[in-house]
């Protein structure tokens, strides 16, 4: 009798239990149970830098809104053949790049690396690269006089579908170049040379060398000085939606939260080619 009752129970409720299990599995695969699904998300333009006296000025400069402690609604998605181009004046002397990066592929490009993250055309000045498959390390390189390159490697082998905070700095007065991966820093001192960039900033590619990044990028910032290790650490702790840390020396700020606009107040808006914006990116993101 007990076995018969159990069988009747399964026959009566088994399909309902199976349906519930399938629904729960589907919800899990959609990220419904990911806490980031319920985190507040900032829209494009909800935080920006205000320059009351116009672009490139710093008098009374301030920020409005806040992105720190919020997730962006979107991040830029690169398919391995896309880029964002920004017309900018030539920068010189010390410099800092920061960005949040998620690699979808480590496939080798024609140039032999796995895609430039931030750099310049013509192909000199500082750049954040991801190196050859035989090395698999983040790199921050500095070109000067358009002839010589110095670089520092991170020693970090990244994982696919994992978000990383990256930064690179060059201090012209000391000759120190640094690359940061999350909260770790790697240093190298080079000869003290005057740095000069090209006049077209490229995000996600080094077009002239067919070096294209494949994955997702967010919160790209450029400063015209070598910001401190403490400031870099603070940017990392702010998370993927963090506000710029040094408004006076901020040159450009591209959150990539649904567009390629510059929110630094300098109006260096980017032009996208083969770039999409993902709204489900947060499933692979873990806050610092």
From TrEMBL:
The chain crosses the membrane at residues 12-33. Keywords: Membrane, Transmembrane, Transmembrane helix. Pfam families: Laminin_G_3 (PF13385). The keyword Cell division does not apply. The keyword Repeat does not apply. Gene3D superfamilies: 2.60.120.200. PANTHER family: CUB DOMAIN-CONTAINING PROTEIN (PTHR47635), LAMG-LIKE JELLYROLL FOLD DOMAIN-CONTAINING PROTEIN (PTHR47635:SF2). This is LamG domain protein. It comes from Candidatus Mancarchaeum acidiphilum. The lineage of its organism: Archaea, Candidatus Micrarchaeota, Candidatus Mancarchaeum.
């Amino acid at each position: 009798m007990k076995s018969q009752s159990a069988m009747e129970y399964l026959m009566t409720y088994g399909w309902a239990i199976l349906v519930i299990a399938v629904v729960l599995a589907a919800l899990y695969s959609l990220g419904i149970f990911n806490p980031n699904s319920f985190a507040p998300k900032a829209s494009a333009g909800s935080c920006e830098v205000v320059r009351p006296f116009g672009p490139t000025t710093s008098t009374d400069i301030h920020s409005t809104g806040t992105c720190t402690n919020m997730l962006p609604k979107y991040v830029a998605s690169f398919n391995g053949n896309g880029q964002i181009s920004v017309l900018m004046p030539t920068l010189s002397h010390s410099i800092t790049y920061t960005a949040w990066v998620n690699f979808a592929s480590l496939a080798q490009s024609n140039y032999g690396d796995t895609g430039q993250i931030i750099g310049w055309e013509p192909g000199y000045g500082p750049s954040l690269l991801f190196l050859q498959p035989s090395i698999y390390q983040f790199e921050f390189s500095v070109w000067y006089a358009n002839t010589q390159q110095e670089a520092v490697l991170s020693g970090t082998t990244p994982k696919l579908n994992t978000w990383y905070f990256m930064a690179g700095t060059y201090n012209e007065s000391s000759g120190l170049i640094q690359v940061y991966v999350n909260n770790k820093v790697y240093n190298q001192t080079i000869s003290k040379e005057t740095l000069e960039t090209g006049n077209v900033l490229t995000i996600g590619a080094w077009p002239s060398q067919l070096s294209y990044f494949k994955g997702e990028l967010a919160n790209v910032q450029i400063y015209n000085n070598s910001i401190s290790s403490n400031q870099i650490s603070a940017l990392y702790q702010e998370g993927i939606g963090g506000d710029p840390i040094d408004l006076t020396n901020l040159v450009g700020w591209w959150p990539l939260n649904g567009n390629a606009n510059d929110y630094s107040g300098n109006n260096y808006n980017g032009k996208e080619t083969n770039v999409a914006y993902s709204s489900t990116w947060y499933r692979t993101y873990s806050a610092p």
